[in-house]
Amino acid sequence: MENKDPMFELLSSLEHIVLAREVVNLAPALQVQPVAMPEPQRLREITGMQVDEFARVMGVSISSVKSWEAKRTRPSGSAQKLMQLLHSNPTLGRQLLD
């Protein structure tokens, strides 16, 4: 049986503990935080589109966009996904109109 240096064992154990704590402390920082998407009207303004253009890009009626902006209704899940894409790339709306 090999005789190990007790000081080496102690330092090795402490190193493992410190590294494990650093990994645990980094875990929350590595989690992706959801990005708050602006309201439909603000998003439309950011993209520089008129209501009719925004409606065409979103594939909905003008009245739907106006209803979203007045907060009478909420965009569907797929509309929200498209709005997230527009928020991350504001020039995408213009590309879709061409």
Automatic annotation (TrEMBL):
Lineage of source species: Bacteria, Pseudomonadati, Pseudomonadota, Gammaproteobacteria, Enterobacterales
Molecular function terms, GO-annotated: DNA binding
PANTHER family membership: MERR FAMILY BACTERIAL REGULATORY PROTEIN, TRANSCRIPTIONAL REGULATOR
Protein name: Transcriptional regulator
Keywords: DNA-binding, Transcription, Transcription regulation
NCBIfam families, sorted: PRK10072.1
Organism: Winslowiella iniecta
Keyword check for Cell membrane: no
Alphabetical list of InterPro entries matching this protein: Cro/C1-type_HTH, HTH-type_reg/antitoxin, Lambda_DNA-bd_dom_sf
Taxonomy, superkingdom: Bacteria
